[in-house]
Specification:
The chain has about 400 residues and is mainly alpha-helical. It is built from 14 helices and 6 strands. A two-stranded antiparallel ribbon has the order 1-2. A two-stranded antiparallel sheet has the order 3-4. A two-stranded antiparallel sheet has the order 5-6. A hairpin with a 5-residue loop joins β3 and β4. α12 packs across α13 and α12 runs parallel beside α14. The structure holds 2-acetamido-2-deoxy-beta-D-glucopyranose (NAG) (2 copies). One 2-acetamido-2-deoxy-beta-D-glucopyranose binds next to α6.
């Protein structure tokens, strides 16, 4: 990664002053242009030999790829020479060759942190780290399944959809009857958490909409998963979703009261939009998503005037390598929901944050940081994770102005 020079930042700041009010009329061309600039910047971190993004982790790279594919869906042929199908094909090949060991810890406060140990690509090693995009963590598998589903949307290359199905078969092994259903977080089978189960819902429902021959199978899995999720206790009285379940001595499982991370309010929204579509438009799923989406926007907006989404009470700006991407995942899925249910609260959240990010949160290389009010260099400074997360909001704005 190149460290921005002072002169570059100052020059860029002068441009910000001129451009900060451009978006008052939510001009489509501006969001298109800004997001293309952001896509160029994120590819500055792309490690072609490894197929993933430097400065961020394994599951995070799947999310950056998802952001890029969402952008490509809107950009169509106007990708400014960025070869998204080529990037997908390279990642599909090279990322699986990674020899990686992963360790994740969950702090008492409910903060996950992942440590990845990467070794050089060695295609000759028989048992490779993340062969077939599988590892010890069912949530990591879910992120890659969603990235490959979006990759299929962009390219219609069936290999990607087939791989998403094969990842999902492994994810199915994570489920059992403990807590009445649902999936474990990882293969140690100790913790059932929200994110893994939301990913399970979203992958199943997304496959139902794409794998014509298995529609009924995936639809039933997704419907059963949502029915279980609702009675699991993870959705609290404020319509926010806590981190996971605590298994009691008596065998019952209850909400563990850990943090209501923004991404836990996010993936479920996209999952329910896909589920509604798979049922031919059942609006009850959309209504459930809208209730969660509105509660989350309210809880994450710490200043009504600015409307900026923050996790200031949880971790911001020091959210570790994992937490720094949560808000973007939330906004990406809020945008999926907005397209199905264009509520003004959602539009406002997306546009206000997109405009603030663009006006206040870029360095001289157009790299975007964790605090959407800016400046870009707080916390660990821009990484592919913070940038990809902010780019999710810009892609969301492209979606809003196309509505
Ligand atoms: C997961 O399930 C599939 C299908 O039943 C099976 O082939 C595979 O070996 C299982 N994987 C693990 C790690 O248990
Ligand atoms: C909210 O943001 C506005 C505009 O920046 C600022 O004037 C106000 O003091 C902020 N309110 C709080 C409670 O921080």
């Amino acid at each position: 990664m190149v460290v921005p020079s002072r002169i570059g930042s100052l020059a860029a700041r002068a441009i910000f002053l001129i451009s900060s009010h451009r978006h008052q009329n939510t001009n489509k061309a501006n969001y298109d242009e800004d997001t293309l600039t952001a896509a160029r910047a994120v590819q500055g971190w792309y490690n072609g030999a490894e197929g993933i993004y430097d400065t961020t982790g394994w599951w995070n790279s799947a999310n950056v790829l998802t952001t890029l594919t969402d952008w490509a869906t809107y950009a169509g042929s106007n990708t400014g020479g960025i070869d998204v199908p080529g990037i997908i094909a390279n990642t599909f090949k090279q990322a699986q060759l990674q020899v990686v060991t992963v360790q994740k810890t969950l702090s008492a406060a409910g903060m996950v942190s992942s440590k990845y140990l990467y070794e050089h690509v060695n295609p000759n090693i028989g048992k490779r780290g993340f062969d077939d995009f599988l590892n010890q963590f069912y949530d990591d598998e879910g992120w890659w399944a969603l990235a490959l589903i979006r990759s299929w949307d962009v390219t219609k290359n069936k290999e990607y959809l087939d791989m998403a199905e094969s990842i999902f078969r492994d994810m199915q092994n994570g489920t059992d009857a403990i807590c009445g259903g649902g999936s474990f977080w990882n293969k140690d089978r100790k913790y059932k958490n929200a994110i893994t189960n939301e990913l399970y819902l979203s992958v199943a429902a997304s496959l139902a909409n794409r794998v014509a021959g298995s529609k009924d199978k995936y639809l039933k899995i997704a419907q059963d998963q949502w029915a279980w999720f609702k009675r699991s206790g993870m959705i609290n009285k404020d319509n926010l979703i806590n981190d996971g379940l605590r298994m009691q001595e008596d065998g019952k499982c209850v909400n563990n009261g850990l943090q209501t991370w923004s991404y836990n309010q996010g993936v479920v929204l996209g999952g329910l939009v896909e589920l509604s579509k798979a049922t031919g438009g059942d609006q009850s799923y959309i209504a459930e998503a809208v209730a969660i989406g509105k509660a989350a926007v309210k809880a994450l907006t710490f200043n009504e005037t600015t409307g900026i989404i923050r996790e200031i009470d949880r971790c911001e700006p020091n959210c570790g390598d994992d937490g720094l991407q949560f808000k973007g995942i939330f906004m990406r899925n809020l945008h999926y929901l907005y397209r199905a249910a264009p509520h003004p609260e959602f539009e406002r959240a997306i546009i206000k944050n997109a405009d603030s990010i663009w006006a206040n949160n870029r360095n001289g290389q157009n790299q975007m940081g964790i605090d959407w009010r800016g400046p870009p260099n707080v916390g660990r400074g821009p990484t592919a994770g913070t940038h990809g997360s902010a780019m999710d909001v810009l892609v969301g704005a492209m979606g809003v102005v196309r509505q």
